[in-house]
Hints:
The chain has 19 helices and 47 strands. It is α+β, with helices and mostly antiparallel strands.
Amino acid sequence: MSIHASTTRPEDPMQYGHFDDAAREYVITRPDTPRSWSNYLGSRLYGGIITQGAGGYSFYKSGGTGRVLRFRFNGVPQDEPGRFVYLRDDADGDFWSASWQPVGKPLKGRDGDDADAAGNPTQASSVRHGLGYSIFHSSYRGIDSEATFFIPQGQAFEYWSVKVTNTTAKPRKVSLFSYAELSNEWNYRQDLENLQYSQYVVVCRMEDGMIHRTNSTRTHTSELWFGMAGADVAGFDTDRDAFLGSYRTQAAPLAVERGHCSGSEATGDNACTSLQATLELAPGETRQVIYMMGVGAPDAAWADADDVAVRPGREIMAEYGTPEAVERELEAIREEWRSFLAPLQVATPDEQMNSMINVWHAYQTHMTFNWSRGVSLIEAGDRDGLGYRDTVQDMLAVIHAIPDAVRERLDMILTGQTEEGGAMPLVKPLTHRPGSEKTPTLEQYRSDDPLWLPITVANFVYETGDVAYLDTVLPYADHGEATVFEHLKQAIQFSLGHLGNNGLVQGLQADWNDCLQFGTTGESMFSTFLMANGVRIIAELAEQTGREDDAAWARGVLEDLEVVLENAWDGGWYIRGISSTGAKLGSEALDEGKIYLEPNVWAAISQTVPEARAIGAMDSVYERLSTEHGVALCAPAHTKEVPGVGLSLLVFPVGHKENGGIFCHANSWTIVAEGILGRGDRAYEYYRGFLPAKYNDQAELHQVEPYVYCQFTHGPESPRFGQARNPWLTGTASWSYVGVTQYILGVRPELSGLRIDPCLPEGWGGYQVTRRFRGMDLTINVVNVDGLATGVSSVTIDGVEVASTEDEGKRGALVPVEALGDGAVLTVTMG
């Protein structure tokens, strides 16, 4: 934050913005948010991150090995560098930025005063984060600006479109200066750390009005261009230090302060993109300046190492560098996201639920699907690939919206499974070679990785009706091939082949909780329940697709597990695991780590234990782990070793992350578990407990964005209890979306139709869901006159009552797919 940063707090210090559902935007009315509130731009070809202060970075294909703009993570000032546009009043030399940062003028308060207590002029600044774009509004001393940042569909360039308006009654002369700090190397670590190399490879020149940056590596030459339309180039700088000046920051660049660029051209050291424009503005006049930056060269076609061709930048600017093109491309982005969100929309009594499901929660599931854990303000790019367990779970929330993309990703991730049934911990899409990958050692496998496959494959088949997918033959990562169904069975066989002395699945390197290591001789209760759940799903798939022998095998495995699961009952809940020395973790007998969340929610989700046990386990979770900000992962938190168990979570203070923190990913499972048990009030209470929108008016406490889920919240034993961390790229997005849409609102696909199984809180009279299912757009109106939690008494389609499919022991109504049609209106009466 600059030296000009506001030292005052808003009159309502807990609120910094609001949801604008009609525009599908979150409006930040105070940009001095407790932490960076960010947004995503672009696609998997060319993407970017931008914060409420215009900080962030861009990347081509990969945040780790395709870095375009430089960014310093966890830096001071925060949010820098970024995409900055400076405005300067040439009459007196006063300057500011189109976004509040990096200059950081005193912010105009809600009283609208034009000056602060010291008499300094104030800046009105707001940000509209939309889906794939962000718009920054500013008003300072009679000059209004609107800066719009986005990446057009399918393109490898970005727009910085700036409109400047003179709102005064006299002519004004204003200079604009763009600024971005370029990465010298595609690889972000090479760029930031290997300075004896990266500081010598960049060349950045001005070529006929466009900036051209080149960097030749051993494998390829990367090129970037930067141009401006809508005004003549009045000056330029491509050398960062010449633009900023010695010992200066982005809050007060030398070039902006003195009113002109120096014409520097970088050869080595550090490159930047600054183009200066001078605007003569009559009273009331608006001018639009369009900055554009992209991959490639200004005057020659360019191809990357994968032979992806990019047109010359000058051609792109000629086609896209007009106000009409900006508006057209921005509307195309909006329309694209309307189409992505349309497959599931809701109208419920909870307005915050509506805002999240209809816009931001759905958007976050797509960002998580696109970028896994690779690019954010937290993930710098080291995980330049797809974590196996993460990716399989991330697909769950977007199957209904983008089934073709999910099919492609699912095919790839299945080829990351080895022939023996385990899975590669990390699959790198840009270099993945099925059939020739190295087989991990037993100690390198994570026991849970392949066990997520049955859940996602089954959901894909149920959503699409594509039973033939189970017969698709796909290679293993190392050698051999099998049908998709055989891949699923092999995941179970791998676990059955690695059971411990007590019949539980060995923990191996980790079992979802990377901070617990049971190893090859200890046993994981979590992975055991996850395996049991997978076996149950395989049995159901086999029964529904005529695989009688496979169904019998799976039912036999479940029978064999009954005694094993019962032996893991600790009296009030299920243990977390058994160490190599035979000691139990997650037991009442312990002083620390008495109870863990994961095995107890999955006891209910797996539906493989008696219902009384599942209810008892979830009651213990509620009594011992639940808080007003979510459910802690374990309690009491650990302070000392447990013999035979690797507790790497001890690196965290009590109440942080896996050591007694509120891990929001696992919180999502509490919604599913209570939904399965039919306890609507408790499922809804858990949903509300960590709902981001709930914290819109408690931003000083929650701190991170109130429009997306985070990875974790500091737990009750932490002095930071209630503060959230690591937003955006988290499995929380997928599972909480599944939890609320499929287990509270209760609309979920099955092979023979669509199940409607509400599990509601007290007082809900009904709700509406519009849902796309196998190419049909359906409207589902749920009527709950008696305020029940569960139960369906009748279903009508377009006014005609239909008989639901008989399915003994299952709640709700299964509406057969044959009874459905495009545009059908279903009325579901609870009773």
